């Protein structure tokens, strides 16, 4: 979600600076590897006593409340979600964030809440493991026989791209937080600047959603 629907880069930086000071760890070291990863996995690297869901959900719930003014929408996010909601299209948010973080940001930004949500607490292994996307596909009511290759994942982090590809999905990489080179190296099928290049164009008689990728960046 972060980097695909909402750009909370500045908010997350302030958050990890605060946590880094509490842990006695250089925040820049944490930020170098934290994006796209679950906080519980990041914290386990520095203080295993804090790598528990009670602590993680508490600190993440505070982020939209304390730093909400530092977040902005990813361009094109609102219109794409509105188009999907208008036709009751199956879509889900699959994120490394906790439930309080996700719902907090969606509320702050006034964006659509998905009917299907996979959060950090739902899986035993975070991205780049494919478990989260496999669970998301299951919650959408799809199975392997229906062709997971027809499922479109939108990601901004190399770990997320790897997870989507490992789950057998097609992946659009947004160059909102990482370089084109890193997204390409992770296996993204398309790379675009933001969600203005991901356009809903229709719905087939069988319910299949038709998406057009415009202005793809060179692979």
Q: What keywords describe this structure?
A:
three-stranded parallel β-sheet; 9 helices; 15% strand; two-stranded antiparallel sheet; 219 residues
Question: What can you see in these coordinates?
Answer:
This protein is α/β, with parallel strands linked by helices. It has helices spanning 9-23, 27-34, 39-44, 53-67, 77-86, 99-109, 131-139, 158-166, 180-186; strands at residues 6-7, 72-73, 92-94, 116-118, 152-155, 170-174, 190-192, 198-203, 209-213. The protein is built from nine helices and nine strands. Helices cover 41% and strands 15% of the residues. The mean pLDDT is 94.
Summary?
Helix content is 41%, strand content 15%. With 219 residues, it is an alpha/beta fold.
Topology overview:
Layout: E1 6-7, H1 9-23, H2 27-34, H3 39-44, H4 53-67, E2 72-73, H5 77-86, E3 92-94, H6 99-109, E4 116-118, H7 131-139, E5 152-155, H8 158-166, E6 170-174, H9 180-186, E7 190-192, E8 198-203, E9 209-213
Parallel strand pairs: 3-4, 5-6, 6-7
Antiparallel strand pairs: 1-2, 8-9
Helix pairs in contact: 1-2, 1-4, 4-6, 8-9
Helix share, percent: 40-55%
Strand order of the largest sheet: 5-6-7
- Helix-strand pattern: EHHHHEHEHEHEHEHEEE
Largest sheet: 3 strands, parallel
């Amino acid at each position: 979600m972060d980097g695909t629907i909402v750009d909370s880069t500045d908010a997350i930086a302030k958050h990890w600076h605060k946590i880094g000071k509490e842990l006695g760890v250089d925040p820049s070291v944490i930020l170098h590897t934290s994006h796209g990863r679950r906080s519980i996995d990041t914290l386990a690297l520095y203080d295993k006593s804090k790598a528990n869901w009670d602590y993680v959900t508490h600190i993440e719930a505070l982020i939209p409340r304390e730093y909400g003014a530092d977040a902005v929408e990813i361009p094109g996010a609102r219109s794409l979600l509105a188009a999907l909601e208008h036709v009751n299209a199956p879509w889900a948010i699959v994120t490394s964030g906790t439930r309080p973080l996700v719902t907090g940001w969606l509320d702050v930004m006034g964006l659509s809440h998905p009917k299907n949500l996979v959060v950090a607490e739902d899986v035993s292994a975070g991205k780049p493991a494919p478990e989260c996307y496999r669970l998301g596909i299951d919650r959408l009511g799809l199975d392997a026989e229906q062709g997971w290759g027809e499922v479109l994942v939108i990601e901004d982090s190399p770990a997320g791209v790897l997870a989507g590809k490992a789950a057998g999905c097609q992946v659009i990489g947004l160059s909102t937080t990482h370089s084109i080179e890193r997204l390409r190296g992770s296996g993204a099928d398309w790379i675009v600047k933001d969600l203005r290049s991901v356009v809903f164009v229709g719905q087939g008689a069988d319910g299949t959603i038709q998406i057009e990728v415009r202005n793809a960046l060179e692979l």
